[in-house]
Structure formats: C-alpha cells, structure tokens
C-alpha cells in the first residue's frame, strides 16, 4: 500500500507561501543572475542577522560546508578530528577526503549527541578539532565541549544541519547563543527536508571571525578573492540564486516553523509517554529544540515490526541511523569493533523517527501515535 502520511509535507508548506516563493524565483529568472546574484548576498545578510552571527557564507550543500570548514582551519593530513559515531556519514566522509583521521566517540542515551564525558580521554597530540553534531534538532553539551576545547586548544566546528534556529545557554552568558555561533565555525545544510530547506541542494558556514570568513569565501570560490587570481587551493561551492530566493521566502517563517514542530512534538509526547516500550525524546535544559526529527526509542520489541505495521497502514517512518560510522565498509579501516560504542550500537536497533513537519495537525499526530501503540500491543 502507498504511504499517505509522509515524513514531511513540503507541498503543504509551499502552498502557504507560494506567492513569496514564486515572486522570488521569477525575480531571479527575470534578472538572469543565476550565480552570485544579489539574492545570495541578501540571504547571507538576513541569516546572519537572524542568527546574530557576524558572517554567513553560503555554499553548495551541507557536506561541502563541513569540508570547507576543515580546509579553512588548515588542518593537515594525519590530524585527528573528534566526531560522534552516531551521525550521517558526511561528518566522517569529509574528514577522510582531506586525509584527516576521524576519532569516533559514543553518544548520550537520552539526547543522541556526542557524549562529552568521553571526549577528553580520546585527545592526543594529533587532535586538532571537535565536530559536535546537533542531532535531531537540539544542541550537544556545548558548555563541556567548549571547556575541553579551550583547555586543549582545539577548534570546534558545529554541525547544525538538523538544528538551525536552535539556541543554547552557555554558562558564561546571560543570553542564549544560536546553534552554529558557539564554536569557531558553524555549518548547516539547506536540503529540502531541513527546517530551513531550499528546493535543491544548499548549505552555509557561520563564523564571528572576520579573517576566517574571508578565507572561507575564497575557498568556496576556487581559492580566489580577485577573479583569475588564485591565492589558495579552493573548491567550487556556491548557492545558486534561485535557491537563495526560496530561502529568503522561508527565513521569516523559521521561528514559527520551530513552534509548529514543537507543538507536534508535544502532541506526540502526550500520546506516547507512559508506555513501557517507548522512550520519548528528552529535551536538554540548556538547549531549545527545533525537532528536525521526532525520534523515539523502542524497548523490548523489534523496532522493524513497528515500522512494518506503520507502512501497512500508510504511515511513513524512518531510521536515522541504521549503522554507526564504524560499521560502514568505507570506514572499516578505523579498527573499531562491535561493543566499542554500546549506546550508538543499541540506538541503531531501537530508534524510530515519526513524521514531523510544520503542516501536521493534531488529528494526524493522534492517528500516527495510535498506530504506533497498536503495533506495540500487537507485538509485545
């Protein structure tokens, strides 16, 4: 049977702002400034203002953003970069592409992010950076991560692909700081299903360091600041003007999108809490949550049997992620073994993400929760 309740509803979201979207795209087409057009600069400026971060540099996608961040910090082959082992492969992929070595760390059971308590024991003379991934919509333990980084003189690159618009309460701050504005560089993705998504690929880097921002812009543009003058080795990674127009139309709604997602999460919480076979997602008291995903853990029942039941009842679901980084063949050379990351390994077998988007109604959320509970009762 075909799925009738999808993970996301981009069409429904588009319908509400189609005039702004269409007008923005038409302006780009009329001007024919498809690359490096004024829409890109306008979007960078508006996002920087929204995040209260000095510099935003748009690029082609979130994976490029991570790679460019590492290049801008001038890390050298053999340098070690600490990352969570429970993340999308791109986090480790860009490290390997640059000849660096990913050092994997287990994650927290409750929050899914890198377990900051385990980081310091993995630091060596070759360690140069930490890449905390703000998974599913809330920040990692940035207070402890920044304390460790400052103690050992390490760079922190925040991967905010799933948490743009989230805020974190730093211990030495009276005001909350935007995700991506805490470390030396923040990165994000504008993949269509993200909270701030375009209609193709897109990404960006954030920094409060003006000198670093200049370096990043050069790397994004073939290592040049002046045309045909290439001072450093760079790449070709640009956000095109049509995608910038889409993002400009969506950005004013981003805070409301986060509120809508939190409302859906609250409905799910109310409907699913109290069941001994379900662990609902916890909120870190220092971080707001923007719920790019609503991810539960299934206890004592085969997770895939729940997924099968949902599919049979036309409800989408997803597993982020079915394998840890070290379990991927591409990273088998890292030398890790089964049991090295007990929390992450368990999560690959128990996590289940339910439909989550800005257009969901309470009626639909109730129907989804009902079928989850029906599946659990059927299989327990």
Q: How many strands appear in the DSSP assignment?
A: 14
Q: Kindly state the mean pLDDT as a whole number? A: 97
Helix content: 25-40%
Question: How much of the residues is beta strand, in percent?
Answer: 5-15%
What is the radius of gyration computed over CA atoms, rounded to a whole number of angstroms?
Answer: 21 Å
Query: Which structural category fits the helices and strands?
Result: alpha/beta
Number of helices: 12
Give me the side-by-side strand order of the main sheet: 1-9-8-5-4-2-3
Give the H and E element order.
Answer: HHHEHEHEEHEEEEEHEEHHEEHHEH
Coarse shape: globular
- End-to-end separation in angstroms reads 24 Å
Biggest beta-sheet profile: 7 strands, mixed
Runs in which pLDDT lies below 50 for 5 or more consecutive residues are none
Describe this structure in words.
- The chain has 380 residues and is of the alpha/beta class.
- Helix content is 37%, strand content 14%.
- It is built from 12 helices and 14 strands.
- Strands 1-9-8-5-4-2-3 form a 7-stranded mixed β-sheet, with helices on both faces. It has a 3-stranded antiparallel β-sheet with strand order 12-13-14. It has a two-stranded antiparallel sheet with strand order 6-7.
- Helix 4 crosses helix 5, helix 4 packs across helix 7 and helix 10 crosses helix 12.
- The chain starts with 9 loop residues before the first helix and ends with a helix.
- The mean pLDDT is 97.
